[in-house]
Structure formats: C-alpha cells, structure tokens
Design a protein that fits this description.
The complex is a heterodimer of chains A (269) and B (317).
Chain A (H helix, E strand, L loop, with lengths): L11 H4 L5 E12 L2 E12 L3 E5 L6 H8 L9 E9 L2 E2 L7 H7 E4 L10 H11 L5 H14 L3 H4 L12 H13 L5 E5 L7 H14 L4 E5 L3 H7 L2 E6 L2 E7 H6 L4 H7 L5
Parallel strand pairs in A: 3-8, 3-9, 6-7, 7-8
Antiparallel strand pairs in A: 1-2, 1-4, 4-5, 9-10
Helix pairs in contact in A: 4-5, 4-7, 5-7, 7-8
Chain B lengths: L1 H63 L2 H6 L3 E2 L8 E2 L2 H32 L2 H15 L3 H19 L10 H24 L3 H8 L5 H12 L1 H17 L2 H6 L17 H10 L7 H30 L5
Antiparallel strand pairs in B: 1-2
Classes of the chains: A alpha/beta (269), B mainly alpha (317).
Chain lengths: 269, 317
Amino acid sequence: MDITINKQIVPKNEKEQDFTPVFKINNLNLWYGQDHALKDIKFDIPEKQVTAIIGPSGCGKSTFIKTLNRMVEMVPIVRMSGEIVYRDKNIFNAKYGVEELRTQVGMVFQKPNPFPKSIYENVAYGPRIHGIKNKKVLDEVVEKSLRGAAIWDEVKDRLNENAYGLSGGQQQRLCIARCLAIEPDVILMDEPTSALDPISTLKVEELVQELKKDYSIVIVTHNMQQAARISDRTAFFLNGEVVEYTDTSTLFSNPSDKRTEDYITGRFG
Amino acid sequence: MSRDKTNQKSIRSMIQENKSSRSQSAVMEKVVPKIFLICAIISIFTTIGIVFTLLTETFTFFNRISIVEFFTNTRWFPFTSDENADFGIIALIMGTLTVTAIAMVVAIPIGLAAAIYLSEYASAKTRKIIKPILEVLAGIPTIVYGFFALTFVTPLLDKIIPGGISIFNALSPGIVVGIMIIPMIASLSEDAMNAVPNSMREGALALGATRFEVAMKVVLPAALSGVIASFVLGISRAIGETMIVTIAGGSRPTADINVTESIQTMTAYIVQVSQGDTGYGTTIYYSIYAVGMTLFVFTLIMNLLAQFISRKFREEY
C-alpha cells in the first residue's frame, strides 16, 4: 500500500461531498434492552467503493452492519431510533418491505453458512425464491455468479455435490456467489475472512477488489491491515460511536483523533 | 492466615490420603461395568425370549392352519366350529391399516404444522408454554382416548355424516389415534427443525427470503430425516395402538374398507381372545401368537425404516 502523507487536513464536511452516497445514516441509535449499543451514528457510505468498519470487539461494528439490512431485528430485544436512507428511501419505513431491502442489500457472514444442498442449488436458491424457474436462465446465473466469486474453476465439475464437501475458504466464496446470484446493489460483509486461512483470505480480498467495480461494499473487519489493504474509506468505531470516518489512507497515515491513533498503532484493542 | 496455610497444604496431602480410599473404589471400577453389562444382557435376553415364545407358538399355529391360507384368505371368523373357522389375517391387517391411515391423515399435517410454528414462528416464551402442554397430551392414558372416541367423537360423527355411523367404526378411533400421535410428531419434528443452525436461516433471510420460504425451503429440507423418522415412528405407534381401537373400533374383522362400519384390528383381536374364555391349546389360542408375530414384524419394519430414513435423507451440515 502506498501511503501519501497529507499534512493538510481537509475539513470533514467538504470531503463528504465528493462521492455519491448509497446509504445515508442519520442519528442512528440502537439499544439491546438497556444496553446502548450504537450512539448517534451519522455518516454516508459511498457507491461502488469499499467501506471498512474497524474497531475493537464489542464496539458495535457487527451490530451496525446488520442494521443496514435489518438483520439486527432477529434479536427480539432490539430497539432503534434515527434513520438509514438507502437510495432515497428510509429502510425503517413500514412501507419498505424488509425482503425487498435484503434483495438489494446482500450479506456475507462471519462463518460460511451454505445450505445443506448441492453447490448448484446453493447459488440457485436466491433466484428461485424470487420466482426465476427457467432452467437455462438458472444455469447461466449459477455459472456467472460462481465465476464472479472466483470459484467456478474449482467447482465446475462438481456442481451437484454437497456444498459441505468444500473447504472453508471455498464455502465462503460460494456464499459470496450465492449473494451475487440475485444481483444486489450493496454487499455487506461481516468479518468474512475471520474463519479462513491466509491463502483463502487473500483470495477473498482480491475478490473484494474485483467486486467493487460493480457493487458497493461494506466490510467489517477486526484486522486493520485488511482494512488498509482493501478499503477506500474507513470508519473507526469505539463503544458504539463513530470516532473517525474518512478515506482509508488518511485514517491510517494521519488520524485526526487521538483514540484512532492509539488503536491503529496497537496501543489497545 | 495460618489456617489458610494449613488449608493450602492439606489439599495436596488430602489427595494423597484419599488415594488409599480410592483404591477401594478401584474394585467398584471393575464391578460396576459388569453389573451394567448384566442389565444390558437382561434386556437382550428378554427380547430374545419374547421372540422365541412368539415363534414357537406361531409355529404350532401354522401346523394347524397353512401359512398360505393365513396370508391369502380375506375372512377372519375364528369363533365357530373348527371346520368352519376362517383364519385370514388380511381382514385384521385391513382394519389396522385403515385406522393407521386415518390417524396419519389427521396427525401428519397438524403435527408438522405445529412443529413449523413452534420452531420457526413462536417466540421463546410461547414455545416454553406450548411444548410442555404437548408433552402432557402425550402422557394421557390411551384408555381415556378410547372413551373420548366412543362417547364424544362417534356421536359427533354420527351427527355430521349424512346417513349416520355405526356405534363401532374405523373413523372415530382413527381420528383419535391421530390426535394421540400429534404431540409425538410435533415434538420430534420440532426437535429436528430446532437443530438446524440459525446461520442457515440468516443466510436465506439475507437473500430476501420470507420466513415462510425459509421454513419450507431451508429448514424443512435440512431437518427432513428427523421429520420423516417422526412420521414413521407415528405410524408404528398407530399400528400398535390397542385400547382406542378395542373400545371404539368394534370386533367385526373385514377386508372391505368402509370407515363408517365396525372393524377389528390385530391388537383388538388379541385383546378379545385374551379377555375371553378360550381354552389353552385351541387353534384360537395359538392364533393370537401368529397375529402378534405379524404385528411385531410390522412394527419392526417400521422402526428399521425410520432408522434407514434418518441415515438416508440426512442433509449433512
């Protein structure tokens, strides 16, 4: 990574104008019961870039990414306030169906979670539930998605085998392919490489670089080097607050907040 | 302070001291497994003993009545003079199968729907209330179900069905056996669906699937082996059910399927003979062993089938 040290600090407000936002988060607060997990989150996520969310364990980064597709509502005791605007629509608006949102905003999880079906059926699952039944179309979608997730060559001869016969890294790329199959707009990745070995991690990271040409990507990672390697912008979360959010090279070379500096230099976390 | 010190030291020395008493327990270590082995052997020998008795008495029966006639004759009229008696088990098998089929038509949809509700929709609180109630339902003695069939369900059916229904019939006990099996299917299927990891539900939900699509296209297929095994065990239970069919089914064996008329199942026949004053050594006496053997083979096949299905349809995850 080449770090250009820019001593001149550009005011935050000006910088945020230079991209098209896909998500605008306004005063988002979230509680698990009495526990205030996200506090007044306010920032915009750019289109067709990689936005990394970093921070120590328990800082709310996973909670935050799960609010973007409302998966956080799986927890029964959760309460929220504020708004998240996804392409001009507030996702908490009752009229905006959660299934529609999740069709647009796909997600890759921390642990690979393929369905106990064949590789083919895993990828075809999304298009199928959205009403695509034509075998030829499905065949094309499966191949395109698997190619898109850089796993086609490894699985093309065993499409009808159970997905659980794949290695962990392959399973994760299969899950990415499953996500690509419904052609989402945004892909959320919740620590997608934390359960993978270094080689598989490298493959997924390269894939993220490829995917950002067509998709807006938000990635949670506990690995700062990974954030520095693959993201365009980085948000540093601490205790449920956004301490700093700016482009990645600035955040890592010239953090404006003392706490960010302490974290990225390894003084805590 | 000093006490603390002695305590600290004494743990190690206490362990040393206890070594001697633990050597006594070494005897236990050797004896106890043998006692357990004997218990295991007792249950095996009991089973073998029962099967052996069944087989010898059945053999005696087949010396008097040919096995071909037993399995091809469709009439079962044992209580006449020996020359006129008919021992065609098909009549009894048809009774059993009719009741079982009605029971499964009742139990499978309701039990499965209840299981899906409990596993996929109910809150933890609701599940905590409903599951114990289901288990209470499973604990009701079958004789109570029998009276329920005879004194409540049959009169009800008599009003509903145009043309009425016999006081003893196949429909009423069939429905009630089904009701009896619902908790079993619901509970076992729910266990199987609950065992499907949540990460799979999340994976499907994140693709924009509705909860119903998640239930039907992810959870149910993943839990299919357990669900089908619960059906087969339910069938096995229905085949072996005795009290309900004895009380509400009647005692007129027939190979014709007419659910509004009196029937007799294999189990109900065995009860009838055991209750009656049939003498030892008569053909009727031996016939209950042949019927019992047939019943045993039926349920054995069902249980083996359940095991086979559990293995065969397992979607590995």
